[in-house]
């Protein structure tokens, strides 16, 4: 086995090993993960929240037993594959052992470790962006048409994973023209490749059309409720933090496109970066939307530094790898839930300085939002199970939640595998069991609900009781209440049907 192969396997093992230690056992899965896992039970060509690719991964996880191990394995796997693409890029650029080690280190000890920590579409999204750039790079290097088709397949599946991949195209197309690569648009294979992409995404486009293009509503809602709180200066600051420990590698790549002769023909990547980043900034995008831009530059930067650090400067090779590791240590201590919630609450200063306590509502809180979204779920499921076990008529009992995190967590952790918790929120509005008569309801309501005594429901049921609440103090769901509503006096199905139709219309 060659040194390159041994090093490659070392970084693979290191990557998976890191993911075994970056989440303290006090934390549950994260809010969004539960929704994505529930999609495996409702396979379709599209969803209100995301395109279908994540549901395919969820289905594989379900077949493998649906354990937390597999939930965490797949985003880590997508991170490993991203590193592998950068490894192959470095090899194609003629890089040696040093550039391979530096590039793999820069990718491993970066924001990707945090992104790959959670089971969300973001890990596959970054992989798709990197694969597309790799395909374009290989085409520019070899002029072999097969790379256009490889990039097209990556684009198709990237679109089926997350729609923001269109921003990559919005930056890439004009960059090719500005960099004098317009010849590519005269290649018929480019359009055959585009047709291949269209065929891959067509089922989802048809689904969007049949369902009234919910992606447009989702974007509008996102803009009103979350992106409105995004500060453009904060967005740009986050870009620096994402690869802070290896920022010098990326900046070296930018320089190389204009000073290093072998890389001048690839300067369109830099132009594409500027255009896409400008679009994201203008649109007030969340900072992490742009992460897919960066991995490819680690390959160029690592190879260029290898060409600079020769002879008397050989010691700088070791130093550069050490710099990445040393600068990542303080980031590691705050970017990952390695500390208990109590410890973070007692020492919030470092989190505050980096803006990690600022949530989507634009306000500062005790814990980072992702961490707070990983607390209280097992407690909720346990308390719901305790009440559910007491109800004899389970067939006509509905677990109705206030949001998708609650519904998904109950479905994931409940010992009753057919409990079928739902909500008039996100994709669950399409999964209601309205064909069965509902007599009893276990109701979960957020702490800020304006009817804590359930006066709206009392005329509809024979008995209404509050049976508990989430008591985990640092959970985003802290104070969420659980109610037992038994003996329906009217048709709850018709009432819920009206709520669902209203939610779909909105």
* Beta strands, count: 5
Distance between the termini: 59 Å
Low-confidence stretches: none
State the order of secondary-structure elements, H for helix, E for strand: HHHHHHHHHHHHHHHHHHHHEHEEEEH
Give a short account of the largest sheet. 5 strands, mixed
Total domain count: 3
Approximate strand percentage? 5-15%
What proportion of the residues is helical, as a percent range? 55-70%
Biggest β-sheet: strands ordered side by side in the sheet: 2-1-3-5-4
Which geometry do the CA atoms define?
Answer: globular
Strand pairing plus helix content: what structural class? mainly alpha
Q: What is the topological layout?
A:
Blueprint (H helix, E strand, L loop, with lengths): L2 H16 L12 H8 L14 H11 L4 H25 L4 H12 L2 H5 L6 H21 L3 H16 L4 H13 L9 H23 L3 H12 L6 H11 L4 H13 L8 H15 L12 H14 L6 H21 L5 H6 L2 H5 L15 H4 L4 H12 L8 E5 L2 H10 L8 E2 L16 E6 L15 E9 L11 E8 L3 H14 L1
């Amino acid at each position: 086995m060659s040194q390159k192969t041994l090093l490659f396997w070392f970084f693979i093992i290191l990557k998976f090993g890191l993911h075994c230690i970056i989440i303290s056992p006090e934390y549950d899965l994260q809010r969004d993960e539960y929704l994505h896992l529930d999609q495996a039970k409702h396979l379709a060509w599209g969803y209100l929240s995301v395109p279908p690719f994540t549901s395919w991964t969820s289905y594989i996880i379900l077949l493998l037993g649906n354990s937390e191990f597999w939930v965490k394995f797949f985003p880590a796997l997508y991170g490993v594959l991203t590193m592998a693409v950068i490894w192959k890029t470095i090899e194609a650029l003629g890089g040696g052992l040093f550039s391979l080690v530096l590039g793999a280190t820069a990718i491993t000890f970066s924001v990707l470790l945090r992104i790959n920590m959670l089971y969300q579409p973001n890990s596959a999204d970054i992989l798709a962006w990197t694969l597309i750039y790799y395909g374009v790079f290989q085409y520019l290097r070899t002029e072999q048409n097969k790379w256009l088709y490889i990039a097209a397949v990556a684009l198709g599946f990237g679109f089926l994973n997350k729609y923001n991949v269109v921003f990559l195209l919005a930056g890439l197309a004009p960059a090719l023209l500005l960099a004098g690569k317009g010849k590519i648009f005269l290649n018929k294979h480019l359009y055959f490749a585009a047709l291949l992409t269209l065929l891959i995404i067509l089922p989802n486009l048809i689904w969007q059309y049949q369902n009234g293009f919910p992606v447009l509503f989702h974007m509008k809602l996102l803009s009103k409720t979350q992106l409105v709180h995004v500060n453009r200066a904060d967005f740009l600051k986050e870009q620096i933090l994402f690869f802070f420990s290896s920022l010098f590698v990326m900046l070296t790549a930018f320089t190389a496109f204009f000073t290093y002769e072998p890389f001048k023909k690839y300067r369109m990547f830099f132009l594409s970066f500027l255009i896409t980043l400008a679009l994201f900034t203008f649109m007030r995008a969340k900072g992490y939307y742009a992460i897919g831009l960066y991995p490819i530059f680690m390959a160029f930067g690592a190879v260029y530094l290898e060409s600079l650090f020769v002879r008397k400067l050989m010691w700088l090779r070791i130093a550069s790898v050490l710099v990445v590791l040393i600068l990542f240590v303080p980031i590691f201590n705050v970017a990952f839930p390695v500390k208990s919630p109590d410890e973070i609450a007692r020492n919030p200063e470092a989190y505050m300085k980096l803006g990690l306590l600022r949530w989507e509502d634009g306000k500062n809180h005790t814990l980072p939002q992702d961490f707070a979204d990983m607390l209280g779920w097992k407690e909720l499921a346990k308390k719901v199970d305790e009440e559910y076990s007491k109800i004899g008529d389970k067939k006509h009992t509905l677990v109705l939640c206030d949001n998708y995190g609650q519904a998904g967590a109950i479905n994931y952790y409940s010992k009753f595998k057919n409990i079928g918790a739902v909500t008039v929120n996100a994709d669950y509005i399409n999964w209601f069991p309205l064909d069965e008569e509902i007599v009893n309801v276990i109701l979960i309501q957020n702490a800020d609900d304006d009817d804590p005594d359930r006066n709206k429901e009392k005329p509809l049921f024979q008995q209404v009781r509050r049976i508990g609440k989430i008591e985990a103090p640092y959970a985003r769901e802290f104070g969420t209440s659980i109610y037992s509503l038994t003996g329906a006096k009217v048709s709850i199905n018709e009432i819920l049907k009206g709520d669902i139709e209203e939610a779909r219309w909105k």
